[in-house]
Amino acid sequence: MRDLRNGARQNPEVYREYVQLEVESGYAFQPGRWLGDIAPELLPPDLQTAFQAAKGETHQLRPLPNPPLVPQQLPLF
Fold first, then answer.
1. What's the pLDDT band for 59 if we cut at 50, 70, 90?
2. pLDDT one-digit tens code per residue, 12-41
3. Radius of gyration (Cα) for the chain, nearest Å?
4. Is the pTM of this model over 0.85?
5. For residue 34, what are the contacts with CB-CB under 8 A and spacing of at least 6?
6. Per-domain residue ranges for the chain?
């Protein structure tokens, strides 16, 4: 955990990019462990807000469309 904090402090721009990936994907760095929680003081306010929203949304299941969206096979020739 200390290594992650030190890395975030040494490379805050890269840290912000990784947190942005968590926000966009909705997936944590590791199960139950979010990079955005490592050093939230390094995140700008808008990214902090987006991170908290993304982190909260992952616990909610999204319903599948009915019928499920299945891509049609493209013709090979």
1. low
2. 999 999 999 999 888 888 888 999 999 999
3. 17
4. no
5. 22, 28, 51, 55
6. 2-57
